[in-house]
Write a structure and sequence with these properties.
By secondary structure, this protein is an alpha/beta fold. The chain contains six helices and six strands; from the N terminus they run H-E-H-E-H-E-H-E-H-E-E-H. A six-stranded mixed sheet has the order 2-1-3-6-5-4, sandwiched between helices.
Length: about 180
């Protein structure tokens, strides 16, 4: 029996129809070596988001500093216009990689399926090296947060395959 024609409708598709088609985004890059002018991953995230009708209202490059990241995120959360925060960098295993340790405790809800799908897709590209990434996602005070690696290739895969197809849908649920 087809779920689309039978009594069991595809509620995911129904929810997507009611979801916003454009969301407001902040992009935060964590790096001790990059500047805004050299932020290839941040540029890529912004370009892909804007090509898909979303608005990047804020771009920042921060050093790998836990206190500064937490203050920046809390200030963004006060801005009622930002619906999604996408970070890149600081998700690896090095001592300086603190994005996950900083943001995950702030999550009201985690989105574990994002990590699982990211690792699955990443394995197809980078094979076993994918296990070094701790990419994750969650919701903080109705704001959706994606924590991506600093690799442009990983950011592109995450945006094209996971984030952009569902971003409006996730924002809708985060605000119910």
């Amino acid at each position: 029996m087809s779920t689309k024609k039978g009594p069991f409708k595809n509620t995911s598709e129904e929810h997507k129809k009611k979801a916003p088609t454009s969301v407001k985004i902040a992009v935060i890059t964590l790096s001790d070596t990059r500047t805004l002018e050299e932020d290839i991953s941040g540029d890529l995230i912004q370009d892909l988001a804007e090509k898909n009708n979303h608005k990047v209202l804020l771009r920042k490059v921060l050093p790998d500093d836990r206190a500064l990241l937490e203050i920046t995120i809390k200030n963004i959360l006060k801005d009622q216009n930002i619906q999604v925060i996408i970070t890149n960098g600081g998700t690896g295993l090095a001592k300086k990689d603190l994005t996950i340790e900083t943001l995950k405790p702030l999550f009201d809800k985690e989105i574990p399926g994002f990590s699982t799908l990211f690792w699955h897709l990443g394995y197809q590209q980078a094979e076993s090296a994918t296990m070094l990434s701790r990419a994750t996602a969650g919701i903080i005070e109705k704001t959706v947060v994606f924590c991506l690696p600093g690799s442009p290739r990983a950011c592109q895969m995450a945006l094209e395959k996971l984030i952009l197809p569902e971003i409006g849908h996730i924002v809708r649920h985060a605000n119910e």
